[in-house]
């Protein structure tokens, strides 16, 4: 039952960046929604950062989300009618100023579809769905934040010994994430230390790859998957792997952009070996090394 409950637990916040078009983000990323308040300027900040506000003892940068994704920026006369959507993502609290809040709806994340080509090359959209006969675009908050607050290069560059590298190199590793920026981070981390890997962009494709590999007697050793994905999410993917005798030997590492104990707890409930808040390359590599050690121990005891 848990695998169904996890997908149903996340709703969708609908909001407006333009007068006509509605957008959405998953509610697990949303801490709260507050009316616009005056902001304190942040010197030398990104052009889309309007300033900072203090909320419950935290100083939170506030981004003009419309401007950040390529729509007309907010004007001074609009600010008083705007709302700040406070998110907890990529280990930071950030406020997004939006033109209007629509509502929160329940969502079947299996119904999220890939963006149609007619949307063009809008890289900030990870999926689309229809609500009340209107197209809703699901925004890639992680990608947006990576543009405004670039990662410290040191967090993307893993450090390991030659012995550790050679321990990982023979393993068959599958990386799964619907976010282009997250896939790039994962890929660059492993590329930088010459560790081979495979990539899937969603949970269902990953499950298919795992199944085909097992049927071909060449199973994956380590599965690294995002949790919050449309369709088959990371919880469900882990559940399916653990409940398939042909797949359950894979060491499962789930990662999430949410700084949430709940996410970590649920990850363990569905059978994941580890749960990480992304992204710190050394944490990921050392999780993989623990997976390699577990597989070595299992072989030794077989």
TrEMBL record:
SUPFAM superfamilies: CheW-like (SSF50341), CheY-like (SSF52172). Signal peptide: none annotated. It comes from the Bacteria. The modification 4-aspartylphosphate is found at residue 226. Residues 172-293 form the Response regulatory domain. The keyword Phosphoprotein applies. This is Chemotaxis protein CheW. It comes from Photobacterium aquae. It holds the Pfam family Response_reg. Residues 9-150 form the CheW-like domain. Keywords: Phosphoprotein. GO terms for biological process: chemotaxis; phosphorelay signal transduction system.
